[in-house]
Amino acid sequence: MRIAPKTPAQFLASVTLSITSMAAFSAPQLEEVIVTAQKRTESIQDVPVSINAVSADTMAKNGIGNLEEMSSLVPNLNISDSPNANVIVMRGLGSGAANPSFEQSVGLYVDGIYAGRSAQFQIPFLDVQRVEVLRGPQGVIFGKNSIAGAISIHSEKPSDEFEAEIQGSYEFEYGSSVLTGILSGPILDSGLGARLVVSESRDESFIENHYSGDGPGEPDQSGNGQAVRLSVDWAASDTTDVLLKVEHSKYDEEGSKFQIIGYDRTAPQTDPILAPITASIVAAQDAAGEDYTFNTTNYQDGKSSDTFLDQDSDSVTLNVAQQVGDFEVSYTGGYSAYDRFSASDGDFSGADLVVEYVPENFEQVSHELRFTSPVGERFVYMGGLYYLDRTLDLRGSGRDIDLQLSVPPALDFHYSTAIDYYEESEAFSGFVQGTWNITDAISATLGVRRSVEEKSAKASQEINQYQTDEPETNPAVLALATSSGTGAYDYDKQTRKEANTDGTFNLQWVVNDDVNLYFTHARATKGGGFNATESTGNIDGFEYDEERARNYEIGAKMELFDRRLRLNTALFYTEFENLQVSTLDETAFVVENAGEAESKGLEVELTYLVSEDIMVGLNAAVLRARYTEFQGTCPQNVNAQSVECQNSADGTEDFNGEPLLAAPDASGSAFIDYTKGFGGFMFNARLDAKYSDQYYFDSIHEAATIQDAFWKFNANVGISNLENSWGVSLSALNITDERTINFGGQSVLVPGQYWGNLEDPRMYTLNFRYAL
């Protein structure tokens, strides 16, 4: 089924601004927004990139406590929760669902350190100062796999004066809570400053397990996180600054937000070998009381035994900045590691079909040396060298698979798989970027990065007797395992070597102090890799190639009416080759190269200071992200298959012109903020709205995998003293209780059945802060 496109005029008509009717005003003015998107501290209006900067205050008022919730404020950004991993999609590009060996197409950076795996940011945001979201390829400055864009998270640094603060939140509907303590300030007169942050969070979900949980009315999905961070800032001399950050966190989770969301019982199982298995699975689901309805209940057959997560993480970041005359030489080193064990109910139902166990050990070390020339010269430049070394160890993984057939015990059709996967990667790169200020108003920038990476992996899978280490020898069981997509294999060490060149060219015209126009052309590459989740035993599906993007963008950044109005726009067109797409291959998600796609659209950001007390804003985007060459997988449900699928010999159809995953044709957010001082207090009220057009939440395109268009509204009311030493606020999130899905798919071995995750329903949160 194809989604009917919405024209830009239809969406943007509601935000059209009649500038000619507005008169110029004097003070007040909008505050300047400072970012480091180009590794320099500068105004966001001077950066020739489509970028959103989200402050800690804005995140707090919208109940944003983790990365997944960020997409509610930033159009053309979708962050979804797939099994065991987050999937980040920007301008329609992104993949990697439930595949621990896959790196995101949107580069994530925490205080300058690359974090390519979702488990590196499992815990909620901790003492975040701001988040910068850069759209479009960022391969030259950021490097490492930033083909669709980059998200840069910046933590608070030690303060110049002593601070002691406690802050927290409590959600009334389900009981989630966060409590954070902060100590910050200088240490005597030593030139040292330190910041200690300790946080405890508890996430009580709205999902009730009516089969194996605590019963109706009792939430059966929860998460607990603890984190401690120490940052030390040392002004070693007038020309040397050193910043060290050490962090440890622990996170554990029980239960799951995933559920069966629908079932077309008329959909037949066309494979006669699998037909009795399908019937047994559905019978077990019916016996568990499954309602096959998208709501706040699931019927999974296990909570603590089948679905849980335990993770311990450590990270160290060291930044040294040295002034050498007018130049700056900086070093950023990072260490990141985690030990993680997860178990999940792979069928999301009361049928004990698939339980997956994944022990995951990860370690990463990176070094970057960068030099930066002084600003204000005719020619301004920077360059650097980068090194990354990491290992991923998934040895000891496995699946317990019970095909649910009612036969004598001697012929029980169930088995287990034992999976070993180990990957090593080493990467080097160097970059240089220079800006020639041709005149005081016109400049040209050229940048290039050369990257070399060697990645190797070894994997094996054994088929054993159910829940034992003994090899399975029953030929009937082995035949059924093969039919259901599971095969034994032992892949010798496979090695990939890649050498890629990314580049960017930019022309910028500063029309005057308030208007800045730019054109950018960028080329970027994302490395290939290996499928840790490959289960069939076909080595051709073990490896996937790098993907490439070519982007063209025209933008304008304007501050008008004595800087009461800020208006930024970007018009872009991006071509993708060898697009990496994640699809469900029988029982596991694997990555393959799809072919080609294109993404084009318009982004608008507007902020207007109506008066000293009232501010309004809008972020809007129209997008057309479509496959231009891709053979997509046909639905299992023959009732939903096209004529092409019904006549297809290989189970695929032409996806040319079909939308990419999680790529709505229109999306946006808007807010109105009112702040007023009275007596010795400061009052604030804010209303936020988010809109999204319909989109596919699964790579298999059919009506059942479409999230319909929706609106969501958040409201926040708060009061603080004028000194801002204390504050309390009440937030109402998703006021209209809109029920939405951002990830899901087809159920295993049951045609016409679908699963998905329910995003947060309506919630009421009390936030407080007290500082000495």
Provide structural commentary.
The structure is a single chain. With 772 residues, the chain is mainly beta. The chain has one domain (34-771): Beta Barrel (Maltoporin, Chain A). It is 5% helix and 55% strand. The strands form ten sheets. The protein has a 23-stranded antiparallel β-sheet that branches. β6 and β7 (113-114) form a beta hairpin. It starts with 7 loop residues before the first helix and ends with a strand.
Please report the number of helical segments.
5
Helix content: under 10%
Binned strand content: over 45%
How many domains? Answer: 1
Q: How many runs of DSSP E, i.e. beta strands?
A: 45
Low-confidence stretches: 1-26
Under CATH, the homologous superfamily reads TonB-dependent receptor, beta-barrel domain
Write the CATH fold name.
Maltoporin, Chain A
CATH domain class: Mainly Beta
Signal peptide: 1-23
Main location: membrane
Keywords: Cell outer membrane, Ion transport, Iron, Iron transport, Membrane, Receptor, Signal, TonB box, Transmembrane, Transmembrane beta strand, Transport
Domain TonB-dependent receptor plug: 44-150
Helices and strands, with pairings:
Blueprint: H1 8-12, E1 34-35, E2 42-43, E3 51-55, H2 56-61, E4 77-82, E5 85-90, E6 106-110, E7 113-114, E8 128-135, E9 149-155, E10 163-171, E11 177-187, E12 192-204, E13 208-209, E14 222-237, E15 240-254, E16 258-263, H3 275-287, E17 297-298, E18 308-324, E19 327-345, E20 354-372, E21 379-393, E22 397-402, E23 414-437, E24 442-465, H4 475-483, E25 489-512, E26 515-526, E27 529-530, E28 543-544, E29 547-560, E30 565-577, E31 580-585, E32 588-593, E33 596-609, E34 614-629, E35 631-633, H5 643-646, E36 652-654, E37 666-678, E38 681-692, E39 695-696, E40 706-707, E41 710-721, E42 726-733, E43 744-746, E44 753-757, E45 763-771
